[in-house]
Write a sequence for this structure.
């Protein structure tokens, strides 16, 4: 195959076509990174607009209606369109390499998952241009969401439904990949912790997302087809939406934060030059958190009126999660203990994470106490808490991961000085923004307030919070500048710039498209480190050099997703005018047609011949 | 010089005190200075949990600072390979068992207070108020007294009052932080909670479930009065007169033509809940829950309700479309409204509240 040599020089059109049709997990990772990064910036701008509205009491920077669109879209964008895809970016970039695989189990589905997410995300944001985005909060509580005028919430429902399907496909794909595609010797208890967390997260996706899917379908029927699942006047019940949403929504927190834990575990081990302390306990803590994560959803609903028995059970179950989480914190600390800690940018983010996330966990336990939650619930205390968890946990991990795996993904190293500047400005801004919010909540400021009144002692806290938010904005700009600068300089680094321990550092950066010329033989936890300690340069091969089977590129995932995107408009606008059903049918025809082609057309892939591999090695 | 230093010290001490005091928030709004049974119970659990958590945080931070300072890579240490420890069973058992014990310290009072605050054994013998939440105001119907009012809930001090709450549109949530934690107000099933206030006064209430455009302006008050004042108030409310003839006759006529179809001016519980009941309007603490009590504010509300609460139900009122209420007519109506009183004058705390708010703004 000529692709071996031809990858270097290509025109823009060819590169674009390559990305539109690729099924390579490394390119899909880059697309997730770019798309997730774009939505992260979008959600960040929404956040700054929110904070600017709250900079002083009774401010009139934006109208009430627009403010509610901002808060809804900020939450929805950050969770579904920024944090999730960025996690998927790292899962795609790293997991197959860490287990010594040549790709994921279903490369075609991997691509389909990405395009579904992207088209769903775009559909969600179309509302901005057609008379208003969703405005019922990211939780979209019925009946406020079902009676919300215009099409904003319809875009929310259909956009999330489409991108949710993509996430579900991605989750299944990684489950199968990790079960089936591990290299010889890579037993479960030798898997790097990031792979373990990706595994547990994929299982959570498999069980949690269907609850959201069902909820969104019910809401779609209520809004577009006149049913009354959540309408009290028609015998429905709005609390059902809350249950469905949080049966998904609480595991979602762990879907995000477990891979974050995985990223930190990798970084701590690498930069303290030590094996992860209590690896077995870490694995079991991960599994336990994932399991308990499904038992606690109703702690989001203590004030709904479920009664003292339900409130007590969910309170105690929630507190129990603090135990495995505590185990993790202590294991990280004792990995550092006795190590040789080098404070690189990824390590700096990790060291910033430990106290930040501990604070988030502390307020988590405080919120679990149901009677105390009667005061915290739906106030800025909660806003402070979940930003400590999601920003202090997940976003810190994403920043750490970007700096840590950037050389692996792109072959260049992000500037360390700029990286450290990003960290310090962001860290200070983060604590300024969110710490004071705990007190604002207890002082009587509910969340989702467009304005707060004068003379309620809330002015200073809100001002501090806004200043902090803009610091985080500045830090993000520095990171962007760092990325641009690094890309322009294009200074290549070797395959193992951090003196890594896991398999991804055993191959060149960026890795060749087939990843491993010969599958490696894994002899224990931290396989590369073991070989290094035995004085070897790299991994021992587990197989002789032979032909490698590769999947063909395909444009069909793009087409399938595009069809659903088009059909989405038909679903929404047929509520005003039935002639829009034509759009619905056209969109579904495109999707089903593309699926039909995929089913009947033989696509057996191709082989890279071992002669080509040898020739490449000689060059 | 010394004098200057002394002044600086006094000033910094003073500003420190101000910060500490303002850190607890506004009186009768903040949850950090509880003045009612529910707020008290919640506050106790908050304090217990925060103390336990501070202990945890100190332990974590002590280990954290020690390892980060002690084990940083030193010069000429580049080739040192640390010992690769797998783990330590004893340590791992310690940091599993101790957190469980700490959590028990929080869990026991949590469960106890949860059952305590859900206790409805005294419901039959107490004052029962049927609370209705609507976009964006509150209606309070006293079940046994057969009266109703809106926006301001009068309760006697040191008495249990049961609130039976339901929404007639979307979900709201009833929160008076200084007296009690919150409870959602759902459209399909009634939620009951009880409140008991320890001190007389006017307390700020907020809606805490996102309910639409004016969610942040759906304020209400609880006015806690002595038992005598409460009895007088109930008596006054029971005798508000639908045939009331005011000295502001023009205003009354305008009101009867343009407003009465939605706003009742007597407190009878028989009126359907359409718009806020006006029976005791002249004794209110605020206009629309968020503006100071003054004629100008009432006029502004009548002429341009959207500027006060965007998206509120009054925007559908026919008079706005017909444009038959101008500035002058609105002033007449305001004169009339300010005469609607169940008692001759408001209780002292309401007077004080109006003064304080007028001074602040």
């Amino acid at each position: 195959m000529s692709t071996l040599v031809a990858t270097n020089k290509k025109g823009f059109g060819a590169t674009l076509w390559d990305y539109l049709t690729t099924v390579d997990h490394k390119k899909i990772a880059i697309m997730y990174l770019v798309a997730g990064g774009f939505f992260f910036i979008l959600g960040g701008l929404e956040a700054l607009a929110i904070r600017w509205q709250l900079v002083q009491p009774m401010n009139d920077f934006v109208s009430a209606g627009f403010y509610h669109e901002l808060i809804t879209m900020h939450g929805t964008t950050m969770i579904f369109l920024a944090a999730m895809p960025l996690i998927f970016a790292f899962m795609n970039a790293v997991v197959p390499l860490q287990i010594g695989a040549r790709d994921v189990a279903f490369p075609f589905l991997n691509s389909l998952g990405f395009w579904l997410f992207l088209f769903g995300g775009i559909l969600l944001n179309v509302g901005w241009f057609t008379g208003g985005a969703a405005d019922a909060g990211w939780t979209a509580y019925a009946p406020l969401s079902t009676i919300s005028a215009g099409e904003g919430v319809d875009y929310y429902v259909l956009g999330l439904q489409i991108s949710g399907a993509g996430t579900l496909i991605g989750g299944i794909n990684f489950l199968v990949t990790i079960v089936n595609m591990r290299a010889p010797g890579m037993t479960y208890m030798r898997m790097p912790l990031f792979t373990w967390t990706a595994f547990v997260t994929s299982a959570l996706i498999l069980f949690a997302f269907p609850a959201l899917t069902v909820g969104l379908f019910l809401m779609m029927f209520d809004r577009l087809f006149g049913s009354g699942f959540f309408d009290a006047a028609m015998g429905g019940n709005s609390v059902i939406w809350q249950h469905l949403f949080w049966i998904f929504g609480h595991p979602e927190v762990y879907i995000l934060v477990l891979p974050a834990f995985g990223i930190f575990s990798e970084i701590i081990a690498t930069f303290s030059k030590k094996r992860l302390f209590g690896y077995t306990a870490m694995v079991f803590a991960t599994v336990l958190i994932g399991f308990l994560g499904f038992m606690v959803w109703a702690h989001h609903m203590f004030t709904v009126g479920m009664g003292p028995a339900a409130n007590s059970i969910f309170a105690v179950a929630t507190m129990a999660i603090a135990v495995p989480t505590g185990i993790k914190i202590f294991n990280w600390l004792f990995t550092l203990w006795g190590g040789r800690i080098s404070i690189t940018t990824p390590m700096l983010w990790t060291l910033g994470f430990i106290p930040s996330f501990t604070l988030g966990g502390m307020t988590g336990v405080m919120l679990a106490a149901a009677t105390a939650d009667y005061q915290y619930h739906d106030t800025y205390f909660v806003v402070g808490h979940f930003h400590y968890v999601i920003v202090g946990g997940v976003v810190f991990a994403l920043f750490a991961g970007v700096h840590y795996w950037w050389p692996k993904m792109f072959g260049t190293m992000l500037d360390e000085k700029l990286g450290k500047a990003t960290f310090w400005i962001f860290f200070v801004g983060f604590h300024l923004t969110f710490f004071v919010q705990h007190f604002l909540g207890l002082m009587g400021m509910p969340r989702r307030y467009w304005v707060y009144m004068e003379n309620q002692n809330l002015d200073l806290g809100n001002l501090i919070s806004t200043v902090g938010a803009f610091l985080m904005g500045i830090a993000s700009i520095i990171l962007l500048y760092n990325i641009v600068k690094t890309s322009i300089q294009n200074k290549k680094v070797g395959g193992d710039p951090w003196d890594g321990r896991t398999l991804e550092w055993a191959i060149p950066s960026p890795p060749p498209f087939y990843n491993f010329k010969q599958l490696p033989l894994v002899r224990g936890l931290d396989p590369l480190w073991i070989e290094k300690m035995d004085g070897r340069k790299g991994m021992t091969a587990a197989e002789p050099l032979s032909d490698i089977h590769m999947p063909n590129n395909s444009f069909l995932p793009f087409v399938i997703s595009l069809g659903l995107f088009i059909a989405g408009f038909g679903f929404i606008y047929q509520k005003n005018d039935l002639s829009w059903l034509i759009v619905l049918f056209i969109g579904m025809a495109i999707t089903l047609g593309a699926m039909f082609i995929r089913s009947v057309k033989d696509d057996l892939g191709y082989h890279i011949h071992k002669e080509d591999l040898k020739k490449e090695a000689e060059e | 010089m010394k004098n200057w230093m002394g002044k600086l010290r006094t000033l910094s001490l003073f500003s420190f005190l101000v910060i500490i005091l303002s850190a607890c928030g506004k009186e009768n709004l903040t949850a950090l200075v509880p003045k009612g049974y529910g707020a008290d119970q919640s506050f106790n659990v908050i304090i217990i949990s925060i103390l336990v958590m501070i202990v945890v945080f100190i332990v974590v931070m002590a280990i954290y600072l020690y390892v980060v300072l002690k084990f940083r890579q030193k010069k000429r240490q580049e080739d040192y390979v640390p010992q690769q420890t797998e783990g330590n069973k004893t340590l791992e058992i310690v940091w599993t068992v101790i957190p469980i014990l700490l959590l028990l310290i929080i869990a026991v009072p949590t469960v106890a207070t949860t059952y305590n605050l859900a206790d409805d054994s005294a419901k039959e013998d107490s004052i029962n108020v049927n609370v209705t939440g609507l976009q964006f105001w509150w209606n309070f119907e006293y079940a046994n007294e057969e009266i109703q009012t809106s926006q301001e809930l009068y309760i006697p001090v040191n008495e249990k009052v049961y609130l039976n709450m339901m929404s007639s549109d979307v979900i709201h949530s009833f929160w008076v932080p200084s007296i009690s934690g919150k409870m959602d107000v759902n459209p399909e099933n009634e939620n009951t909670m009880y409140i008991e206030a320890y001190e007389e006064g006017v307390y700020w209430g907020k809606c805490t479930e996102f309910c639409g455009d004016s969610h942040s302006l759906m304020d209400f008050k609880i006015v806690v009065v002595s038992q005598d004042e409460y009895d007088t108030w109930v008596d006054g409310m029971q005798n508000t007169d639908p045939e009331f003839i005011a000295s502001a006759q023009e205003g009354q006529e305008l009101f009867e033509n343009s407003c009465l179809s939605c706003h009742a001016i007597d407190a009878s519980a028989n009126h359907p809940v359409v718009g806020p009941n006006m029976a005791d309007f002249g004794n209110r603490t605020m206009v629309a829950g968020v503006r100071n009590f003054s004629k100008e504010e009432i006029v502004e509300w009548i002429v341009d309700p959207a500027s006060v609460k965007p998206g509120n139900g009054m925007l559908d009122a026919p008079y706005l479309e017909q444009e038959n209420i101008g500035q002058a007519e609105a002033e007449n109506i305001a004169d009339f409204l300010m005469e609607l009183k169940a008692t001759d004058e408001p209780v002292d705390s309401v007077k004080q509240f109006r003064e304080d708010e007028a001074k602040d703004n």
Notes: Chain A touches chain B through 91 residues (CB under 8 Å). Chain A has a mean pLDDT of 95. The radius of gyration of chain A is 24 Å.
